[in-house]
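Slide 14.
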Amino acid sequence: MTGTRGIVAALFLLPALVLLGALVVYPIGYSVVRSFYDQSGDGFTGVDNYKALFTDHGIRTALKNNVVWIVFAPTVATALGLVFAVLTERVRWGTAFKLVVFMPMAISMLAAGIIFRLVYDQDPDKGVANAVWVGVHDTFVEASAFPKAHPGRDSPLVAQGGGFVTRTAVHAGQPVLLPLVGVAPGNMPGGARPAGAARAEPGKVTGTTWQDFTRGKGVGELNAPDASELGYAGMRIEAVKDGEVVASAKASADGTFTLPEEADGALLRLPASNFEEPYNGLDWLGPSLVTPAIIGSYIWMWAGFAMVLIAAGLAGVPRELLEAARVDGANEWQVFRKVTVPLLAPVLAVVTVTLMINVLKIFDLVFIIAPGSSQDDANVLALELYRKGFSEDRPGIASAIAVFLLLLVIPVMWFNIRRLRREVRR
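Slide 15: predicted structure.
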């Protein structure tokens, strides 16, 4: 149409074609050829390397995890992006919010992996996820203050069922001493006061439970409360007869407690709940949670990408259609579900398909976040390709995985390109 000769157009396209051939076409062709050869590259193996894709345990785990990634990661990221895009239209600080949500896209996958490796650290003092989780848990479930407590020398207590029980039965009117050791002074309950001596009360069983330890060699009397020793405030005491709890009480701030007459002739038990280790949160990077945890970090990065594209599509939605729906009596949820989402369907499809292509190639986050002990459980095809090609020196199988990944990506890319062309024609 412009009179330009074909040879001139070819010359202008030549540099791009050379680069495309060298960086894309040749590597693809070489990978296809290499996938039919053995480890050395000299022996032709036919489709044996492709058979390994469905027989090798590591590859099958990677394939299963890729399915989980494809189903959940693009769906959740797109849904969050849609919600953020719609809601931020109605607030003044919507631009600032979009900037914050999109900001993770500015960092590399490597940096995001390092960040979330720390976020998912098992220690609540280091890992943010477990710090929040433990904080919520301890709000509703009281943590034990005495996880290390245990009877000392010549103690009247013996171990039983994770807790401790008196050697002999107790009787009303005779104060009982229940000394323990093993709790660091800094870990004693905040309301603990110096241990007090329980007073005998007719018809009731009284006693004291306390930290029977005083700093300094030879200081203090064994199995007797001293002025510097603190009571076990909040310690639960149970009276047990014939294996059944007949009465229970909690120690006061000075460690003293009082049980009713039903406790007469019973054994006193300090149940195991007094000595449970503090809740330490979830093992986010353990075998059962490592894949969902890594998917969470991916969504943190890519929800902003989805939000920006959907917000751009939302800006092109005719406002008169939304207003007409509201005038006809539709509430906001109905407007969103019946009008906004259908009008945004092409954009949502493009975003979802783009994220699916991206997810099929996921490597960095899994490699960085998953520790060595659970990397096999978090394995994906791109990571398995790397391991087979470099760690295990099996380039034939690695090439087969690469070709298999290409075959998985091509239909998704074709669908995306076809949809984009259809939108351009409109």
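Speaker note: The first helix runs from residue 6 to 34.
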